[in-house]
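Chain A, query sequence.
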Amino acid sequence: MAKQYSFYPGCSSQKKASSYNQLRSTQTICQELGIQLNEISDWNCCSASIGYCGGGELPRLVLSARNLALSEKEHPGQDLVATCAACWLATREAQERLEHDPQLKTEANEALKEAGLTFKGEKKVRHLVEVLIEDVGYDEIRKHVKKPLKGIKIAGYVGCQTNRPFGIVGESFENPVYLDKMIDAVGAEPITNYQKKVACCGGALMFSEPEKSQALVKDILEAAHDAGADMLVTPCPVCQMNTEVYQSFINKKYGTNFNMPSVYYSTIMSVAFGKTAKEAALDGQMIRAKQLEEVAAR
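Chain A, predicted structure.
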């Protein structure tokens, strides 16, 4: 029987949006592993980035509280799962803030009452990597590998948002190793001495102050290159976008020659599980992950 979870996909996973390829590869690995993601109907933006720019604390929290309330109503008893690190962080923050501040919770529910909803705080908010680690396990992941990614060296770029302030249970804030273990589980070689594993890529700063963010990304790519990595793997749509899309800008500014694929953990898992390049959403890469394409074509 499939393990069932209430699913919040988030804005960037929508068709033609920046992380649609993450959603597609996630669907293939979930099908393989017996995970059923039950999408919340009529979900809204979690306000992960723009909500801090002037909308105010209560409206920002209410946006996530509405998703939580819908999830509690539609999928009772199911943990809420997000694939986007920013969505996971914003939703989990909202849940914890409202649970620990009765006055704020009352005010949020006053707003939600206009839509006939009530936030109860009954949900556990989880990133999909937590489900894979805690409910599936690395050994089970290994059992589903049909095409090991042998010989591919991968730097696990965790970034900020799955690492602080909450982090993944049991992981170090300074050196989380869950991506290294996932990389190893699919037969690839993790770069265990990757110095920029938890460095910030600048996030949405890339839009407002691109030079500052690009300088951060340059260091992330340089550390991966110097450690011998063939590609980056990340759990975060913003990290993936920043480390892939802006390499040409960085090359022009700094005289570098980066051309390193940046992919999702779901992408490498999908390829290793024997899925086609299309099922693994490799066609969504701006910098082609040719080594993964070769494995998928076998």
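Strands lie at 3-8, 35-39, 80-82, 125-127, 153-156, 189-190, 231-234, 262-264. The longest strand covers residues 3-8.
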